[in-house]
Amino acid sequence: MINIDQHLSPIFEKQSCWRIESLAEKLGYSTRSVQRFLSSVGYYRSFTHNGGWYTLRSIPLFDGDGLWFYDDIGFSHAGSMTDTLVELACNSSEGITAEELGKKLRCRCHSVLVRLIRDGKLQRCKRGRANIYIAKDADITTIQRKAATVSEVQLPAEIAVLVLVEFINNLGSSFVQLAKVISKSKKVAVSAAQIETLFIRLGVKKTLQM
Q1: Total domains in the fold of the chain
Q2: Helical H runs in the chain?
């Protein structure tokens, strides 16, 4: 039996992700054996390119949305395209459009969203002219709908202070992440748009990203 780390690590140091056939050829083993090797050390499959690319679990540096890209190859902490879309929609403070999801994932995802709606894994609602994808879970949906109804309303002073405290305690968090933390932990409906408006008003917008 080969020393898996000794053989895999140098290969992935030269190239961060591989197709299983190319990796098997490089190692001189069958694809089934290489799949076992990868399983023993941990790996991610791409959510793009029909899941055809592999990388070691130790390699990706995921962003705030749990995404990492190697050129045009996308990997997600959630795993597959379907699981990633569900996670992004559930984690969005007010729901999210297909266009916004496509921008994050750098690929079209409308057909997958339609299947997720059909399979009951997400809900879709109309907000203005846009279709918004929200969680199926009733508790999360309630928070998302409440946040949406107050997104254009300026935050009261006491809520603004709460946002600033959470920001200090979670430096580097995005507006969406802050809204999620506050909405869940403090049971206060706060939207990413409200937080962005607050930070613009305070002149500290550049410290955060949407």
Answers
A1: 3
A2: 4-14, 20-27, 31-41, 81-91, 98-105, 110-118, 138-149, 157-169, 175-185, 192-202
* DSSP structural state of residue 51: G
The Cα 205–Cα 198 span in angstroms is 8
Measuring CA to CA, which residue among 74, 91, 109, 99 is closest to residue 181?
A: 91
Residue 53 has a CB neighbour count (10 Å cut-off) of: 21
Distance CA 152, CA 197 (A): 9
- Least confident interval from 75-79, 116-120, 176-180: 176-180
Q: Which of 16, 41, 56 is the last residue of a domain?
A: 56
Q: Residues 70-114: pLDDT tens digits?
A: 999 999 999 999 999 999 999 998 899 999 999 999 999 999 999
Q: Are residues 192 and 157 in the same domain?
A: yes
Structural domain for 22, as ranges = 4-56
d(CA 123, CA 57): 31
| CATH at 42 | 1.10.10
Q: Compute CA distances 145 → 126, 171, 181, 188, 192, whole Å.
A: 11, 26, 16, 12, 13
- Whole-Å CA distances, 154 to 22, 61, 150, 163, 191: 55, 35, 8, 13, 10
